[in-house]
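hiii, so i know i said id send this last week but things got crazy w the move. better late than never?? heres the sequnce for the chain we talked about at the cafe, plus the structure i predicted for it. fair warning i was half asleep when i ran it
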Amino acid sequence: MRCPQCWSERMHVRRVGMAKRILLGLCLLTPVRCEHCYHKFVVLWFSTTGRRIDPPAQRQATHTHRPIGPSLAAKHRTALSAGRGPAAPPAPQRPRPRSVA
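okay and structure toks below
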């Protein structure tokens, strides 16, 4: 079983919709995708027996997450219990009277 485009032997079964899966199953075909060139094609179901054609393993994230601290609500509760209430909003400014000149 080789890719018809690049002749690679590395491939995996690809996902298809329900209707397409049923139609291909009735024709004894299996949808596959080449891992080298990503070409989509179908092969006879008999050619996949005894072979392992699983999708490639997902890559794990290598970045580190920031340390998890208390939530904003927990910080707010701590500030209220310590007697430091929320800051008062600024006083609204009254509009200046217009001068008639």
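btw Helices lie at 18-26, 72-81. thought thatd interest u
miss u guys!!
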